[in-house]
Write a structure and sequence with these properties.
By secondary structure, the chain is an all-beta fold. Helices cover 0% and strands 45% of the residues. It is built from no helices and eleven strands. It has strands spanning 3-11, 14-22, 33-39, 44-50, 56-60, 76-80, 82-84, 89-91, 95-98, 104-107, 114-115. The strands form three sheets. The protein has a six-stranded antiparallel β-sheet with strand order 1-2-3-4-5-6, with no helix packed on it. Strands 9-10-11 form a three-stranded antiparallel β-sheet, with no helix packed on it. It starts with a strand and ends in a 14-residue tail after the last strand.
């Protein structure tokens, strides 16, 4: 059995599309379970994909209207494996990103980052007498 659910919601003046796709059988990298919530411009606010071999992808980017006033922007991306959003599949490949510590991380679908540059040392904080 497989399932596909699509729901349009209205919260206040905002419109959202919720989609859930559950393929038949166990999720695989080529045919993962997917769930998404999009705003009326079709921008993804929430994306979830669950593939085979423990691969998963979660991306959260809610609009400001759904967050407390103190938060102006929120973006969260967590993954195990490499998820190609265009193809809707987990693929093999290498991800390279740069962190705030100026180190370069290389991730080859293992879920482990190897930092090639050490973080900046903490400043020396000596108390004055």
């Amino acid at each position: 059995m497989q399932a596909a659910i699509s729901v349009s919601l209205k919260v206040g003046e905002d419109h959202y599309n919720v989609e859930l796709a559950i393929p038949s059988g166990t999720p695989t990298n080529d045919n993962p379970y997917t769930f998404s919530v999009k705003d009326k411009s079709q921008a993804n606010m929430l994306e979830v994909a669950i593939g085979g071999k423990g691969n998963y992808f979660v991306n959260v980017a809610p609009p400001k209207s759904l967050m407390p006033a103190a938060i102006e922007q929120l973006g969260l991306n967590i993954s195990e494996g490499h998820y190609d959003k265009t193809k809707g599949q987990f693929t093999t490949g290498t991800d390279t990103d740069t962190d705030t510590d100026s180190g370069s991380d290389t991730d080859t679908d293992t879920g482990t980052d190897t930092d090639t540059t050490p973080p900046n040392p903490a400043p020396n904080r000596r108390s004055k007498k």
